[in-house]
Write a structure and sequence with these properties.
By secondary structure, the chain is mostly helical. It has helices spanning 36-48, 53-63, 67-73, 83-96, 107-111, 116-130, 134-167, 175-203, 212-235, 239-271; strands at residues 6-8, 15-17. The structure holds zinc ion. The site of zinc ion has 8 residues, from loops. Zinc ion is lined by residues 9, 11-12, 14, 21, 23-24, 26.
């Protein structure tokens, strides 16, 4: 009857029965946890990815959009890789080699946005003030902005999730639920439209076809797929309303991306 023994939690001091503290979740350490056998098991798991939660999550992102966030917000959390952890890993992988201009935006990309003309005036002034020419300025800017973009993606997540509070007002979802959902959408984009696309471009001949128009078509169609599938899964929406709301969300995503990119521009310039 070992499990009926009372333990005093080593972390928070709470008295509890069982193997985990019911106040803070701390695990009771047993001698077996510190054995050589357990050590080998842990190493083996890490090296072979036998703990395949991560890869299962990647697969679910593509196969069943909206499922991970639904499970998460409805309280079934231990079976799945946490959406935020997934985001952090994919974010790290993307920004290691951010050639596709999605959440990264080089100076060249920034100058193509609607505010581009205005930006070029600011850039000229700043470059003069720093006493460097435009090519050195571009070099420094692009290095700076990658580091900042990695952190600032969360701005995109929050902005893009705000309209969902109105669109799916009646769906019994709360503020952070929409944020979690948007994190999944960002994970989906980082995986498919950034990492997979970069790998395809690097290792196949497809790279030469990826011009601005093709990329836009890919972004729109994949995101529409995500929004339609997850609209059913996460918001239990259907029919004409689902199609209308998903199309509207495409425009909102585009708008949120523009806002995010201009915020990124000003923060980058300011930090130089
Ligand atoms: Zn505790």
């Amino acid at each position: 009857m070992e499990h009926l023994l009372s333990h005093i939690c080593k972390s928070c001091g709470h008295t509890f029965q069982g193997n985990f503290c019911n106040e803070c979740g701390e695990k009771v350490l047993k001698p077996a946890d510190r054995s050589f056998k357990r050590f080998l098991k842990t190493i083996f798991k890490a090296a072979t990815f036998a703990d395949s939660k991560f890869f299962k999550a990647l697969w679910l992102l593509i196969k069943k959009p909206g499922f991970i966030s639904k499970e998460f917000i409805e309280g079934r959390r231990v079976k799945y890789y946490k959406p935020l952890s997934l985001f952090l890993v994919l974010n790290l992988a993307y920004f290691f080699f951010p050639v596709i201009q999605l959440f990264n935006a080089s100076l060249k990309t920034q100058l193509l946005t609607p505010l581009g003309k205005f930006y070029s005036v600011l850039i000229a002034k700043k470059a003069v003030a720093m006493g460097i020419d435009l090519s050195s300025f571009t070099l420094i800017y692009n290095l700076k902005t990658v580091g900042l973009a990695k952190l600032m993606v969360m701005i995109f997540v929050v902005i893009a999730s705000l309209p969902l509070n109105l669109l799916y007002f009646k769906r019994n979802r709360y503020f952070t639920d929409h944020v979690d959902y948007m994190i999944e959408l960002v994970c989906f984009n980082l995986l498919l439209n950034a990492i997979v696309l970069t790998l395809l471009a690097a290792f196949t001949g497809l790279g030469s076809y990826l011009n601005e128009i093709v990329l836009t078509a890919i972004f729109i169609s994949t995101n529409l797929y995500f929004l339609l599938r997850s609209g059913i899964e996460f918001y239990a929406e259907k029919g004409v309303r689902l199609i209308f709301k998903s199309l509207l969300m495409i425009f909102i995503l585009k708008l949120a991306l523009e806002i995010y990119r201009s915020a990124l521009f000003f923060v980058t310039i300011w930090s130089m």
